[in-house]
Design goal:
The chain folds into 3 domains: 218 residues, Rossmann fold (3-Layer(aba) Sandwich), CATH 3.40.50; 174 residues, 3-Layer(aba) Sandwich (Dimethylsulfoxide Reductase, domain 2); 116 residues, Barwin-like endoglucanases, CATH 2.40.40.20. It is built from 22 helices and 27 strands. The strands form 7 sheets. Strands 5-4-17-16-15-6 form a 6-stranded mixed β-sheet, covered by helices on one side. The chain is α/β, with parallel strands linked by helices. Bound molecules: ligand MGD (2 copies) and molybdenum atom. The site of one ligand MGD has 32 residues, from helix 6, strand 9 and strand 22.
């Protein structure tokens, strides 16, 4: 029977700043095709190559469609199908036994950013709060950046990228816009046509250099020194907006006294950028009327990440750019808060007392192997995350997941490296198979999208699965009795201070599924306790901002791990066309560093430190800072030549502020792999 094909709209659920709009063609049973939504206020009809393949992903024959129970060794990938009833009974009886015999803190959950819509992302937290299980510190991405930014401007919103068109100079500071902020790339192309300058400050400049007028290569983790030296030059040349800094800021006079030491020569030693180039950059920045800095998260993933972002935020304020349209800082939180009351879903109040144990996601390996001063976890529930691929200390994570006395449940769509270690796998739904609300983290938009097709096979959404497990645990709280649709309506109808002014008409748009462009922040209405921004912040352990070094290490080369344009963290790894385009697991090296080690483009190399040895294919370029190497993309273990990926080289150390990942802050040695036999 031929069925009518019609078009629906939805929102991309993945972890990008834009939350792009999608059109979906469907016959009501299957998704046929996706395209860009021309009416979406941010993506305006653009859609990345990955999401053009969404139909292939959702219809993939590799999808997990029934609950599965392990039938072989941990990690072997051998499973047999079981019913949902069997799965839920087994899971909840194990948990009840553990709670009784070992206490609830023997159980932990792990979710991160597999799905970014609010109900599906956060619903798991409520179940484990109710259980009294370990709490998870979710700082795998940009929490050091958030911390550094907030330590200067509190909850003040930064620039929405749509405001950038009014800027007259752009510093793209550690962001591969062409891959990770795709809708903004067109704005740079347009700006350059208008004769405006785009300057890139990068460790690994190759992907973005073609879109910029100039690329400045910097040593990893040293951006704070560059920001300080730029402020030294600005202050020395009367280019600091002193009336603005005195009226809106706190501590300028004292900070200025410290700037004398931060000369371009001083910063040149640290950053590897010639002193003259630092002076020229500062003067070019200082003479612009409304310069903007588009800050990625790369430079925050270091032991000094929060301080680095703090210094760059102060630099963005230094010439008064924030008071002019298009001037200031972009890439942090443009709304300054949330349009939805996320606690409606997270429900921290369901915890009867403070958690006995808290686990930082970056140190999951310690919790799984019992090296954090607690007994090793006895059960782990994973949903919307793939820690075996995306979290630091990969060998420690795998060692922990292999433990026979760990009961692991993974709610997944595909047989990921984490799922392979599960005792029970539950089949997860895709975004088009569930209803949810969305807010972009890099733009001022809020949106909602209703289920378009029923979940394939026996897949269930995170919410439906959480509610089912809660019921089987015997939890009778009203919260877990709600339907997905009820929660969806509640979130739309519960205003936060940032969405309180929505009209009835606008709420109706959301209830039906749609997107709203929200007002840009008032950038000089500083949302701090003192209503002014902090150059010196008396509430911090280190009130005076200054240069701090990152963790580093004793090996010669600094390893950074950067996103691939063809995958999204570990999503799309299973999609054959994306995997083909991405190619083999490469490590990008500076041509001179490679030559000094007898390494040529395409050679097999071994990259090692005290944690692990990982095999890559070398790719050489002059557009990476000397002394740095970059691992591009997150690979499945069976896609890596040596069975481990770059995350095995990442120490689980935390950042200075924000307790965040420091995945870019690791040292390694690289040698040519000797082919034997
Ligand atoms: N195609 C694609 N898109 C993605 C993702 C993906 O994996 N693929 N990931 C998504 C996620 S989870 C996030 S958080 C976002 C944004 O993710 P971000 O992490 O902001 O990603 P990038 O924009 O690549 O910015 C990181 C850049 O910082 C650079 N860098 C590293 N260390 C330093 C340093 O010390 N100094 C300087 N100046 N630069 C440095 C890297 O070379 C890299 O180009 O992207 C999202 N979008
Ligand atoms: N080497 C390296 N490591 C990185 C990064 C990097 O660039 N390089 N990026 C880092 C960053 S910025 C981030 S944010 C983290 C991300 O780390 P994670 O949050 O662990 O994200 P992913 O690895 O993409 O895994 C997400 C999983 O969620 C599943 N999923 C998607 N939708 C749903 C759903 O609705 N329900 C359920 N149950 N599952 C779903 C997907 O199939 C996928 O397997 O990784 C970090 N780690
Ligand atoms: Mo991220």
């Amino acid at each position: 029977m031929l069925m009518d094909i019609y078009t629906k709209k939805t929102i991309c659920p993945y972890d990008c700043p834009a939350s792009c709009g999608l059109t979906v063609q469907t016959d009501g049973r299957r998704i046929q095709k996706t395209g860009g939504d021309k009416a979406h206020p941010v993506s305006r009809g653009l859609l990345c190559g990955k999401m053009r393949r969404y139909a292939d992903e959702i219809n993939s024959k590799d999808r997990i469609l029934t609950p599965l129970k392990r039938s072989g060794g941990k990690g072997s990938g051998s499973f047999i199908p079981i019913s949902w009833e069997e799965a839920v009974t087994e899971i909840t009886s194990r948990w009840k036994g553990l709670i009784k015999n070992e206490g609830p803190s023997s159980i932990a959950y792990c979710y991160y950013s597999g799905v970014m819509s609010i109900i599906q992302r956060h619903c798991v937290q409520a179940l484990f709060a109710r259980m009294g299980a370990c709490e998870l510190v979710k700082t795998l991405c940009a929490s050091a950046k958030g911390d550094g930014y907030a330590s200067v401007v509190g909850d003040t919103g930064c620039l929405d990228p749509r405001e950038l068109k009014n800027s007259d100079l752009y510093l793209v500071w550690g962001s591969n816009v062409s891959a990770t902020r795709f809708p903004t790339l067109a704005d740079f192309t347009q700006a350059r046509k208008e004769g405006k300058r785009v300057i890139l400050i990068e460790v690994y400049a190759e992907p973005m250099a073609p879109y910029c007028d100039e690329a400045i290569l910097i040593r990893p983790g040293t951006d704070g020194a560059l920001a300080l030296a730029m402020m030294h030059v600005l202050a020395a040349n009367d280019l600091a907006d002193e009336p603005f800094l005195a009226e809106y800021g706190l501590g300028y006079a004292r900070f200025k006294e410290t700037l004398g030491a931060y000369t371009p020569q001083w910063a040149a030693e640290i950053t590897g950028i010639p002193a003259q180039a630092i002076t020229d950059l500062a003067l070019c920045y200082g003479k612009a009327s409304a310069p903007s800095i588009l800050l990625g998260s790369g430079c925050s993933r270091y032991g000094n990440g929060s301080m680095t972002v703090r210094l760059i935020t102060i630099l963005s304020l230094f010439t008064g750019a924030w008071k002019r349209p298009g001037g200031g800082l972009c890439g942090c939180t443009p709304s300054g808060g949330s349009y939805f009351d996320v606690n409606t879903v997270k429900r921290p109040d369901l915890r009867s007392r403070r958690p006995e144990r808290t686990i930082n996601i970056n140190q999951l390996s310690h919790a799984l192997t019992g090296t954090d001063g607690h007994p090793p976890l006895k059960s782990l529930y994973v949903a919307g995350s793939n820690p075996a691929n995306s979290v630091s200390d990969q060998k420690g994570i795998l060692e922990g997941l292999k433990r026979e006395d760990l009961f692991t449940v993974v709610h997944e769509r595909f047989m990921t490296d984490t799922a392979r270690y599960a005792d029970i796998i539950l089949p997860a739904a895709f975004s088009a198979e569930q209803s949810d609300v969305y807010e972009a983290y890099g733009y001022c938009t809020m949106a909602a999208a209703k289920k378009i097709v029923e979940p394939a096979g026996e897949a269930k959404s995170n919410w439906d699965t959480t509610a089912l497990l809660a019921k089987a645990m015997g939890y009778t709280d009203d919260h877990f009795r709600q339907t997905e649709e009820e929660l969806y309506e509640k979130l739309i109808l519960t205003p936060t201070p940032l969405s309180a002014f929505l009209t009835e008409e606008e709420r109706k748009t959301l209830l039906q599924g749609g997107v709203l462009s929200m007002p840009f922040a008032r950038h000089t209405d500083f949302q701090t306790p003192d209503k002014r921004f902090y150059i010196v912040n008396p509430r911090l352990p280190e009130p005076m901002p200054h240069y701090t070094a990152c963790h580093g290490g004793s090996e010669e080369l600094s390893l950074i791990s950067v996103p691939s344009r063809h995958t999204l963290n570990s999503i799309f790894q299973a999609e054959k066309e994306q995997a083909r385009k991405r190619g083999s697991m490469t490590l990008v090296m500076n041509t001179t560093d490679a030559a000094a080690r007898g390494i040529k483009d395409g050679d097999p190399i071994l990259c090692k430190n005290d944690l692990a040895e990982v095999e890559f294919t070398a790719q050489t370029t002059d557009l990476i800072a000397g002394g740095a190497v970059a691992a591009v993309g997150v690979y499945r273990l069976d896609q890596s030549p040596g069975g481990l990926t770059c995350n095995a080289l990442h120490h689980p150390r935390l950042s200075d502020g924000g307790n965040a990942t420091t995945m870019n802050d690791n040292k390694v040695q690289c040698v040519l792999k000797k082919i034997t036999g």
